[in-house]
Amino acid sequence: MMPRRHQAAARLFIAGALWLCATQTHAAAHYQLEKVVELSRHGIRPPTPDNRKDIEAATHRHWTTWVTRDGELTGHGYAAVVNKGRWEGEHYRQLGLLTAGCPQPQDIYVRASPLQRTQATALALVDGAFPGCGVAIHRVKEENDPLFQTEAFPATNTEPATQLAAVQAKAGDLAARQQALQPAVSALKAAVCAPGTDCSFFDKPWQIKQSKSGKTYVEGLSVLANMVETLRLGWNENLPLSQLAWGKITTAAQITEILPLLTANYDLSNDVLYTAQKRGSILLNAMLQGVDHPPASMPDTRWLLLVAHDTNIAMVRTLMGFSWTLPGYTRGNIPPGSSLVFERWRDTQSGERFIHVFFQGQSLDDLRHLQSVDQAHPLLREEWRQADCRITDVGTLCPMKSAIKTLSKHLDPSAITSVSYP
């Protein structure tokens, strides 16, 4: 017979388990998850060919050549995204959005940007969420998708003079911005400049310039930001330390130290409201329609998964007025494989519908070590909220009607065109 103290402990354990189960059941019974619209960034990639050219010219050094072709998703990046997709699939099954086994057509629709890194990321996400099921990845046949590559279409492109004025207005005193970022500039310079090499590029005053195509950028800052992104991706890729800034970066904290330059570049590019209104309105509008009342032209599935680029997420979040600071990152940073998520929940007692909006991603080291997403290593997350939202067991839920009104207030109707779904 079990000793009395063991019997008491067993009863307490069972009671605690029953209480936890009852609490989770109560939360699930009170709120029902009906819909998910998710916008994901692609996973880890080497520098793009243009970025490699610029950073090597600025440092007068050859940067590490990765095994994967420049700009394409790596095998390590694929595995990291599979980890995230696996957790999401399990999570949404536990919440009752998905059923066990392979999905039915009404369960998920995946649309990815035409580039290799986004197509492969989409495959990795569904390989994790639905292993062995062969979930279809949809893409347009053309080189550019009007939902993602908006700079390629007249209706969603920016007017050069207006964009230049908008960037100048947001930049304000550019010299003061550059001075404030000197600690990050110095840390980057120390990591990538070889002794005796001409590193005068790091000390040149930043200037707002505009290309012949009308793209506005900050000369100097944009290349520094590309260096930072390349180093961050190299850390995420688990490159040998000897191949990462020639052995001068050995901790995630050193990556965090230089990330402010990436934030500053976002601030003066995709995070400019005018740019976001012209190039991001069509995507945010599609996401809001998808989570609320999808039009007949849009697939009405339980999980609408869109896989694109950090630029897309940046423009959408700018229109939303939403920013975040995940642990180990700087304000607004968009790690590889991270995503902006809209969830629609229904109060089963009142019938009222709510939206749960959040940004999620893995830490610098979890990506580097291919850490599985679990209770001990959860996705980093920050929620959007406004005054009428409520804190619940399933997250911060905001009344659908008022939230949609707030989230759509910066949309530019002239930049919203009809989109077909392949």
Description:
This protein has 422 residues and is an alpha+beta fold. It contains 14 helices and ten strands. A hairpin with a 5-residue loop joins strand 3 and strand 4 (216-219). The termini are far apart.
Count of distinct strands:
10
Shape: globular
Order of helices and strands: HEHHEHHHHEEHHHHEHEEHEEEH
What's the overall average pLDDT, rounded? 93
* Helix percentage: 40-55%
Q: Which stretches are poorly predicted, pLDDT < 50 over at least 5 residues?
A: 1-26
Counting DSSP H or I runs of 4 or more residues, the number of helices is 14
What portion of the residues fall into strands of 2 or more residues? 5-15%
Instruction: Describe the sheet with the most strands.
Output: 8 strands, mixed
* Structural class based on helices, strands and sheet pairing: alpha+beta
Secondary structure blueprint with pairings:
Elements: H1 4-30, E1 31-41, H2 49-59, H3 75-94, E2 108-112, H4 116-129, H5 160-171, H6 174-180, H7 182-192, E3 207-210, E4 216-219, H8 221-236, H9 252-258, H10 260-267, H11 273-291, E5 303-308, H12 310-320, E6 339-347, E7 353-361, H13 364-368, E8 380-383, E9 390-392, E10 395-399, H14 400-407
Parallel strand pairs: 1-5, 2-5
Antiparallel strand pairs: 1-6, 3-4, 6-7, 7-8, 7-10, 9-10
Helix pairs in contact: 2-8, 3-4, 8-10, 11-12
